[in-house]
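We treat protein structure as text, and this decision shapes the records that our systems exchange. We quote a single record here, exactly as it is kept in our systems:
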Amino acid sequence: MYEVARGDNVTLPCQFQPKTPDNPLVVVTWTADDTAGVTEDDVAAYYYPLGRTDIKPDYEGRVSLQADVPKGLVNLMLSSVTLKDNKSFHCHVLIPGDDKGTTKDTTRLLVLVAPSTPICKLIGDAEYFQNIQLTCKSEEGSPAPTYQWERRDVQDRPLPQDPKTTDKDGVLSLFNITKETSGYYICTATNKIRSASCKFTLSVMPPSMKLGSTPAIIGGIAGVLTILGIIACVVCCCRKKKRNKEEEYAMGVHEKELNAKEPLRNGRQGDGEDDVRSDIDESSVRRADRNEERSIDAGGRRRDHDDQRSDNDTGRSDYSDRHSDFEDRRDRYSDRHERYDDNRRDDRRTDDYDRRRHDDYDDRRRRDDYDDRRRYDDDRRRYDEDRDRDRAPSVPPNKPNREDYDY
């Protein structure tokens, strides 16, 4: 066996001794096979006395033969060896008529390669009471490196392994792990050249604290937030509907208030008329005073009518503003379309009712004005009649003086 570092040159000797020194033909061939001996490849061949050398394409530029057949020497020189050259090389000698002796010999070439930095991995889930494995493997290394695991604490001091722990061919098996299994694990790969190591930090956690469950936790949180968002939207919609109903109710109450004002004013007018009629039956002076007061009251009532009419116009304007706001809300909330149609029908009924009420109000006002004028004229005529009746009779122009009378 020949050991050589990767990239170096090596010479593999092949020596033989023929039965006779002079031979008309000698053929020496070199072959190589893998360590298992399954396949065998041709490397080179030498033909004597022609002095011809054949090199196979896979070895062109790296292989040459050092041949001296009379001395029984045909050596194989190999340069820049690689891991592919880590094989067994065979030398075959063929001489016609010389069948005695050994015609084949074998040389083992071992290419030495330092182990590459191993890769440490975890197989399994680092959770309480689980079984896991720590693996350690170098991509390169010749001869094949050996592996050894050791455990360290946070102060980088060696710790003993659990008795049930097994370490074989770079695989560290840990059984029924607990929190105490956590720590720093170092794997060292070693061969004839040198050694290399890798470190692995093992953190054993409860199942709920496992890092791998983070996506599930995030998904659960996202689901909860989605549900909360839906609930918030439903609550907002309910509040808006409730607020709209309250506004509609308030609009209806305002209309009722407007409707309730008119009969109260008419009632008060009726009471005033009865009072006036009862006062007219008194003395002429008091009737005159009452007539004046009634005139003032009539003017005040007309002003009240005008004020009430202005209030009605203002109320209708406010109602129109609310109706406009309601139409704006309809544009913003398409889901209230059906309720909007209902409100429009209610608005039309309300407008018809307002027109009819306004017409009735105008009719009542015209009747009241006519009655006021008629009563005023009657009162004025009666006043004039009473005044003329109470006035002293005029003295005729031909009335004699008192001095003309004889007593």
